[in-house]
Amino acid sequence: xxxxNNHGDLRTKxxxxxxxxxxxxxxxxxxxxxxxxxxxxxxxxDDKQLKLAQSxxxxxxxxxxxxxxxxxxxxxxxxxxxxxxELILKKLEQxxxxxxxxxxxxxxxxxxxxxxxxxxxxxxxxxxGGHPMAGSHKSGVQAAMGRLFENAFYVLTxxxxxxxxxxxxxxxxxxxxxxxxxxxxxxxxxxxxxxISHFPHIISAALVHQVKNTESDSALATRLAAGGFRDITRxxxxxxxxxxxVLLHNKEIILTxxxxxxxxxxxxxxxxxxxDEERILNYFLTAKSFRDGLPAKEKGALPSFxxxxxxxxxxxxxxxxxxxxxxKAGISxxxxxxxxxxxxxxxxxxxxxxxxxxxEDGRLQLENALYDTYTMS
Length: 377
What we know:
Layout: H1 6-12, E1 14-19, H2 23-35, E2 38-43, H3 47-55, E3 61-63, H4 66-70, E4 75-78, H5 82-92, E5 102-105, H6 111-116, E6 126-132, E7 153-157, H7 164-173, E8 180-183, H8 186-212, H9 218-224, H10 228-232, H11 240-249, H12 251-273, H13 277-292, E9 306-312, H14 318-328, E10 335-340, E11 347-353, H15 356-368, E12 373-374
Parallel strand pairs: 1-2, 1-4, 2-3, 4-5, 5-6, 7-8
Antiparallel strand pairs: 6-7, 9-11, 9-12, 10-11
Helix pairs in contact: 8-12
């Protein structure tokens, strides 16, 4: 899959290897290309993804061989699921890695990855764990975009022996992401990611299971769940394979959080059983106050959903009119859903955008066309 005349490129450009041609790997590759004149070698077992990444000019060359891909690379990025990353790190111990090369990953758990990378440091290579806390509703390299990580937190977990200049080099390589870099230990990362990201996915999936397992009025429950319940459990639609691996990788933290959650539920149970109006009220007041104080414009560990709700009349062609207005303005949407549409009343369209900027631009365009719009904070 090598392009013609690529040898000249390899002699004059520094080489980056990205293992894993998905949304994250492709987006990081694009972000690096935006800032650096580099030659990017992509590695994946899926021939279609490799060819697609090359046709989209995300990578310059593709291969199935990790050994070939990492040879002479200044930076190796492992953009694979955490379980596969562990296996790849073992393969890299025997690979022809360049002296002084930096290896990093993008996994959402860090402790096991950190321990699996120990042998790399003996070969003159520096491993620095990484976790870009951003994502998308879409998957695959075809959904890659260089601005995916803009203003998102990008956690780096260097070892205590990592030279500061290596961390700086990695940040310089990744500056095109326009992410907000933050350093912490692997253990600290896994505790915080478990609390803010991993555990909410469990709760979301559990809520869905509770509705699914309703023995009576199941059809009615399903209909009612199509509204707000569907929105608050949206993260339950994430990749089951990925979340299986994440939970098993972060097993001890998750078990601790589950024990703490049981205590929290027991506390709520006691309030209700005792008809303690004041404690129940204070419980919700405290939660509301803390939640309302969270930063509204910052990206966190969970993907943000930039939704805009549009009141629309029950009239043929109204959906194409809305999408046409946005299309003429060059504003893309990632999803559109009809929440309610009945004869003689206003319906509601839920539009999902990639960024808050796109949502605001879309709101202005639609309101200029006399549509009523609103958001939910």
